[in-house]
TrEMBL record:
PANTHER family in alphabetical order: OXALOACETATE DECARBOXYLASE ALPHA CHAIN
Gene name of the record: accB
GO molecular function: acetyl-CoA carboxylase activity
Keyword set, alphabetical order: Biotin, Fatty acid biosynthesis, Fatty acid metabolism, Ligase, Lipid biosynthesis, Lipid metabolism
Function: This protein is a component of the acetyl coenzyme A carboxylase complex; first, biotin carboxylase catalyzes the carboxylation of the carrier protein and then the transcarboxylase transfers the carboxyl group to form malonyl-CoA.
Organism in which the protein naturally occurs: Lacimonas salitolerans
CDD domains per UniProt: biotinyl_domain
Keyword Lipid biosynthesis: yes
Gene3D superfamilies reported for this sequence: 2.40.50.100
Region feature (Disordered): 60-88
InterPro entries: AcCoA_biotinCC, Biotin_BS, Biotin_Carboxyl_Carrier/Decarb, Biotin_lipoyl, Single_hybrid_motif
Residue stretches of biased makeup (Low complexity): 60-73
Name this protein carries in UniProt: Biotin carboxyl carrier protein of acetyl-CoA carboxylase
Length: 161
């Protein structure tokens, strides 16, 4: 790598770090291709400060459309979905889309059977639509995210058993 390319890479990484800070993101990952067998892979991350979860009042709210079906076993309220063995974690920070476009049917619903590699949802990150595949075959038991909502890296998206 020449000195000129190195300086450009440092400037590029500094710009990514600034973008991370300005948009209050916890992680960015970018691959920059120069030529055959010459690329730069960069992951810029920072340790996010964990805020305690807000205490919600004990009043019952209407069930969202992605709630578990009546035939599915109800999750235990004290169980953290992230620790469930069937949890599908988010591979990136971004915005969740449960369907390919507004008005289209969702990729999956609670109770659907999926095969390994089937698209579960889309995460938009830096204007790029990333299809998130099912890591294993099984039945979708819970959808833990809302369409149009934000997701952090590692946050549970769904439970597939």
């Amino acid at each position: 790598m020449t000195k000129k390319t190195h300086d450009a890479d440092v400037t590029f990484i500094q710009a990514l770090a600034e973008l991370l800070r300005e948009n209050d993101l916890t992680e960015l990952e970018v691959m920059r291709e120069y030529a055959d067998n010459d690329s730069l892979n960069v992951r810029v991350s920072r340790h996010a400060v964990q805020m305690p979860a807000p205490v919600m009042p004990a009043t019952a709210a209407p069930a969202p459309q992605y709630a578990p079906a009546a035939s599915a076993p109800a999750p235990e309220p004290d169980t953290d979905p992230a620790s469930h063995p069937g949890a599908v974690p988010s591979p990136m920070v971004g915005t969740i889309y449960l369907q390919a476009e507004p008005g289209a049917p969702t990729f999956v619903s609670v109770g659907d059977t999926v095969s390994e590699g089937d698209t579960l949802l889309i995460i938009e990150a830096m204007k790029t639509m990333n299809h998130i595949p099912a890591p294993r075959a099984g039945t979708v038991r819970r959808i833990l995210v809302e369409d149009g909502g934000a997701v952090e890296y590692g946050a549970p998206l769904m439970i597939i058993e």
